[in-house]
């Protein structure tokens, strides 16, 4: 199976000027000898939450890599999930912190090495969550509280799938959803709705959002009755809206999704790939590194990747015709 690109997504490259320099530095030699490793590296981040301060939040990580590798590492935020993949394919980024589908694409399309996957509280997968501000409609039981947040329909088990019988009630609702590159914000919940017999083109009113926290806030503010996100994106906005866990109730969880992780460009030598992989894994094992990674992507640890686990998300995307 060759997943070439997502439907409705053009080839979208990172547009920051610094990337062009990185691209030229990493280009191959003309005499057929192996290309020298670049003198600078670009780390591409995808906007899974508010991207305004993401580069600044990641600066301790890029500073650490710069010191460890002896090569300047600069962080950039791609305009969407797909742009980060295309940037790696075009030689504009050499390190990608990518969701599971984009890890698979970077490997399948551009021979990138998937070297690390994230752990969150010891878990190597996570469900997408369906959340609502109207629990009377979607909850078949009384919501229960866990860690200050409300769940119903068995979603408090925190493991998917759960509560999927309730999603037929989404028919006709306003639904906040991310772009089709997002496994948790689009692919898995949309597939669940389609499996329940809902035509997501005509059977719901789509409220497009660009990030997971924006989906939560759309439900919190009443702009949408239902929203999709990764579990548990409510935590991201809790510092600004402390009552989000009470007003936004998770009523269903999808099948488990492989965790996101780190891909490295095929342009890098195996030796440099090993150095980057080791540096990132070691960093995630330190208290400071774990805190920074948690701030960036709610990552508690980076562990060796099993690329074969990513096949299921590519298969889910294929079922939606996103190829």
Which features characterize this protein?
alpha/beta, 21% strand, five-stranded mixed sheet, globular, D-Maltodextrin-Binding Protein, domain 2, 35% helix, 323 residues, six-stranded mixed sheet, 2 domains, disordered N terminus
Question: In brief, what are we looking at here?
Answer:
The chain is of the alpha/beta class. Helix content is 35%, strand content 21%.
Compile the SSE list and pairings.
Layout: H1 17-25, E1 40-45, H2 54-69, E2 72-77, H3 81-89, E3 95-98, H4 100-110, E4 113-119, E5 125-132, H5 135-138, E6 144-146, E7 149-151, E8 174-177, H6 183-195, E9 205-208, H7 212-220, E10 226-230, H8 234-237, H9 244-247, E11 249-258, E12 261-264, H10 270-284, H11 287-297, E13 301-304, H12 311-319
Helix pairs in contact: 2-10, 2-11, 3-4, 4-12, 6-12
InterPro entries: PhnD
Keywords: Signal
GO biological process, one term: transmembrane transport
How large is the count of helical segments? 12
Radius of gyration, in angstroms, nearest whole number = 20 Å
User: How would you characterize the largest beta sheet?
Assistant: 6 strands, mixed
Q: Percent of residues in beta strands?
A: 15-25%
Order of helices and strands: HEHEHEHEEHEEEHEHEHHEEHHEH
Q: Using the 3D structure, state the CATH architecture of the largest domain.
A: 3-Layer(aba) Sandwich
Q: In terms of per-residue confidence, which ranges show pLDDT below 50 for 5 or more consecutive residues?
A: 1-32
Could you report the average pLDDT, rounded to the nearest whole number? 87
Counting copies of identical and different chains, the oligomeric state is single chain
CATH topology of the largest domain: D-Maltodextrin-Binding Protein, domain 2
Estimate percent helicity: 25-40%
Query: So what's the overall shape?
Result: globular
CATH superfamily heading of the largest domain: Periplasmic binding protein-like II
End-to-end Cα distance, whole Å, is 10 Å
Class by SSE composition = alpha/beta
Q: How many β strands by DSSP? A: 13
Pfam families: Phosphonate-bd
Keywords: Signal
Signal peptide: 1-20
Protein name: Phosphate/phosphite/phosphonate ABC transporter substrate-binding protein
